[in-house]
Amino acid sequence: MIQQLHFAETIMVILMELVAVSTLMNIMVLNLIMVHIHLIMGAINHMVGVATIRP
Fold it and tell me: Which of 6, 29, 45, 55 is the most exposed place for a label (fewest CB within 10 A)?
């Protein structure tokens, strides 16, 4: 009985860790995507700016 409880606790801990890790990964991926979008938008703005400045 005690062993079964311990087993359940271990599974719960592993599941919680997996959820925490996946959440952190999602946050990191979202941050990377946001940075990429920011860089791409900046590059497009730069291109447009250069194109409009030149006659």
Answer: 55
